[in-house]
Amino acid sequence: MADAVYTAPGVLTPSDRKPAAALRTFGRFALRQLLGRSSLTMAWLAHDPRVRQDVLLMLPRKPPATAGALRLWAESVQRAGRLSHPRLLAPVEVSAHEGWPYLVCERSAGAVTMAEYLSGHRPPAPAEVVDWCVDLLSGLAVTHEANLCHGDIGLHSVVIDRQGHLALWGLAVSCEAAPDEMPGSTGALERLRAHAERDVAASGLLLFQWLSRQSAFDEPDLSVASARLGEDVVRLPFNLPHPVPEALRAIVNRAVDRHPRRRYVGARSFERALDGWRQVQSADRDGPLALLLDRLRTAGHLPAQPGLAQRVVQVARMENRRVDVLADLVLQDPALSFELLRMVNLARFGAGKEGQVVTVRRAILLMGVAGVRRAASSLRSWPGPLRGDAVEAMQAGMRRAWLAGHLAEVLAPGGLDAESALLAAQLQHLGRMLVLYHFPAEAAQIHALMQFTPARSDTEPAIPGLSESAAAMAVLGVDLPALALSMARHWGLGEVVLEMMVPLPLGQMVHTPVGQAGWFRLVASCANEILEADELAAPLQPRAFGLVVSRYAKSLGLTSDEIRASLIQARVLLSQHGLEPAKSPLGSADASPDGPT
Fold first, then answer.
1. Which residues belong to any copy of the HDOD domain (predicted)?
2. Do both 364 and 392 map to the same domain?
3. Rounded to an integer, what distance in angstroms lies between the CA atom of residue 325 and that of residue 318?
4. pLDDT score of 545
5. What is the pLDDT of residue 465?
6. Does residue 540 form part of some domain?
7. Buried b (16+ CB within 10 A) or exposed e, 500-515
8. Which pLDDT score is estimated for 329?
9. Residue 510 maps to which CATH number?
């Protein structure tokens, strides 16, 4: 059986089109074929006798009402036409015929509109669709950054060349300004913002359509569908021509979310999420590391905490002191602890030695004080490249990791190495700390998506917060544990560490572990779940603590009173380092009204 051909919604296939008795004309142009239209614009394949070749012709469905409006339209379209970007198709003519404005673009050899392309090709694979959308958003972001808009993104206003690259054309053709509206005025800026939001929403709907082979709301006109996004729920179906990975599904669903506050704030953030997913998919099993490689070279892994120089001097004076005293000093700085483990495990691997080093104490025994000094000297001083609110968020993330570590230390059953439990709990925060340090803007987006938004009115219902995993995938294209695991493999940490640094799934029963790594993972997961419960609003805490107690009843046998006592003890340990516990930098007490999700 021949492969099915993807017929885009609202697009006529060649066999559907009836030959016209005579060509229609528009000014000097002979209109050969209607390529597509929406409620705002129409696109034609036209023949231009002046250059003796076919061209792309676009005009608004409704002409400007006055001569002043026509002049403003021409100025806006001409200004958009001066943008230079490989994903934007520059016009060769902007003019008007009998009061009706139009734009002309060259039709390069082999280039067709997406409407034409999809009518003759098989359903595209998700990776190909993402490449298309990244191209589109790249051009759209440049447009918005120039204080311009497209105004009518659709299958007829996107062209694809022989190499499979997309370009937008018809910029600003549908964006009519009011005749009395001055550029830069409040009204003009508000209109531009609304058009830009509609552009981004239409891009999300186009991505949805490419993956699902159907239009949202059964409405092929994306300008109309964009206006309906707030009226109903749009979610990517599961019965699709090609399986869609969970992270990509999260990105698509965020792009077409019913609530505007959950959607992408702009074309650039949407593009970064898709490009992040693309980088992860194109690499090997440590694909998430591709997001970080360039940043690691310039900013390091994580920044040392303030006072690193003083700690190094203290270490130098402790040549003959007990190892546990040295270890306690090193453990005050997660970045230094992780760097020491990285160095010692890479050194052992390079020397062909077996066995993994999973504690700072053993790392100090093997590397000596000189090794600790080398590890410290390799770290970037605080706060690295971070500035402003990002510094405060990073500090809060570090403090939360410390508190989780001390809580795991307190919860560790007798016979279980408390330091390893502490490191496991801190390593379960590695993904968050990497995002806070290397992607501060994206960390802020993740934080915003996790917030519970109360109802503002009867017409604006409450918006539940996303889980951290869903929010991270929607923003970065990868979840935080996967990012942390990739970094740990990059550091040369072995399977024991990799096992204990992955939090236990919240939706599954907790079983009594078999090996030590399993116990470290369990205690660390319990500690972090307790912190999540403690950060909820006070009325929600008893239920959340009860869930933790029931989850770990068989393995740890904790009670709610013991949990609260352990929290107090962990805070005392934290205060001994001159630190105060901080709220979660990515989620808050109101992240979910029903507790951790």
1. 302-507
2. no
3. 9
4. 95
5. 87
6. yes
7. bbbbbebeeebeebee
8. 82
9. 1.10.3210.10
Helix extents (H) in 300-451: 308-316, 323-330, 334-350, 360-377, 389-411, 418-427, 430-438, 440-449
Q: Indicate if 353 and 204 belong to the same structural domain.
A: no
Q: How far is CA 110 from the centre of its chain?
A: 34
**Would the pLDDT of 13 be above 90?**
no
Please indicate, yes or no, whether residues 481 and 568 belong to a single structural domain of this protein. Answer: yes
Say if residues 43 and 61 touch (Cβ distance below 8 Å). no
Number of domains in the chain: 3
> Which of 361, 382, 403 is at the close of a domain?
382
The residue written with tokens 């230390």 in the block is: 409
Quick one: 187 and 59 in the same domain? yes
Q: How far is CA 133 from CA 114, 168, 173, 223, 347, in A?
A: 12, 11, 21, 17, 43
Percentage of the chain beyond pLDDT 90 is: 62
Residue 93 near residue 101, CB atoms below 8 Å: no
Quick count: other Cβ atoms within 10 Å of Cβ 443? 25
Question: If you average pLDDT over each of 182-196, 274-288, 487-501, which comes out highest?
Answer: 487-501
Full residue range of the structural domain in which residue 370 is found: 304-382
Indicate if the pLDDT at residue 6 is higher than 50. Answer: no
Q: How does pLDDT run across 342-359, given as a tens digit for each residue?
A: 999 888 765 556 668 888
Predicted model pTM: 0.81
- Tell me, yes or no, whether 287 lies in a domain: no
Q: Which tokens go with 120?
A: 């003759």
Q: What is the mean pLDDT of the chain?
A: 87
What integer is the mean pLDDT of 314-340?
Answer: 80
CB atoms < 10 A from the CB of 382, how many?
A: 18
CA distance 133 to 129: 6
CATH number, domain with residue 163:
1.10.510.10
- For residue 146, what are the contacts with CB-CB under 8 A and spacing of at least 6? 79, 80, 83
DSSP 260: G
Within a domain: residue 1? no
Same domain? For 215 and 122 the reply is: yes
Same domain for 190 and 116, yes or no, is yes
Q: Of 37, 39, 459, 36, give the one whose Cα is nearest residue 227.
A: 39
My answer on whether omega of the bond before 539 falls inside 30° of 0, hence cis, is no
| Residues 545-565 pLDDT 10s | 999 999 999 999 999 999 999
Q: Could you tell me how far CA 158 lies from the centroid of its own chain?
A: 24
How many angstroms separate the CA atoms of 114 and 157, rounded?
8
Domain for residue 592, yes or no?
Answer: yes
